[in-house]
Amino acid sequence: MNESYALITGSSSGIGLEIAYYLAEKGFNLILTARRDGLLKNISKDISSKYKVKVDFISSDLSKKEAPNEIFEYCNSKNYFVEILINNAGYGIVAPLHESSMEDEEKCIRVLSISVIALTKLFIPIMMEKGGGKIMIVSSIAAFAPPSAIQSLYGPTKTFVNRFSEAVNLNYNKNGISSTAVCPGYTVTNFHTASGVQDEMDRVPKFLKKSAKRIAIEGVNAMLKGKAICVPTKTWKIIAFLISSVPQSVFKILSSFIAPGRFNK
Q1: What pTM value is reported for the model?
Q2: Burial class (CB in 10 A: 0-12, 13-18, 19+), 156
Q3: Residue whose C-alpha is closest to residue 57's, from 31, 89, 86
Q4: pLDDT surpassing 80 at residue 120
Q5: Span 177-211, pLDDT tens digits
Q6: What domains lie within the chain, and their CATH numbers?
Q7: Which of 72, 89, 108, 153 has its CA 20 to 30 A from that of 195?
């Protein structure tokens, strides 16, 4: 019988890395994937040594069309049953919409959404055959917020993956498969520097910034319970409620405190 594994994309840093350590602590075998081969190798050795679980890795760039199939075929070649699929990889584009190239936008959308669909489509049939599975899509509080003045496509794409996650639950809960959209607020990772919005992040009040480890723990626990949506931490649950409840005119006033520079230019 094939051993079960948790596959985590974007697992070399940030939330993905913390998810890897937390799942290993819980006794799950892991398949890690990200772009940096050497870093994945070191992380795999560390996790395996600390938690005595099996850890394998495959370097892959999800901005490339063939990447999901390469990951899937690698798992098949090793007879790994991916019982848990964590779609975590992501980044944002620095340049404004009118200045970025279409190629850059397509690559970003491929990472944030198309690869999520592709990997889910590839692994769901095996989950069905085995009697169930868990899927996590690391989304964002931006999925609920009004359009942003920066990273124009990021929020809409996150809204899309939330709806996709809902569709997975609608169609596959009967097969024992659940999908959880995890929607964190500001999280302390290298994402903001890499995405060119570190200045905005630096202006955010400290109490709104949460650790990647806390997001990982709350997200994984929600996924294992089969919850459809997880907004980690009480702070961001309240903010998510406010976003969905107050008029946009009021939210714009609040946003100057909650999200400096994101809704006004």
Answers
A1: 0.90
A2: middle
A3: 31
A4: yes
A5: 999 999 999 888 765 445 445 555 555 668 788 99
A6: 4-258 (3.40.50.720)
A7: 72
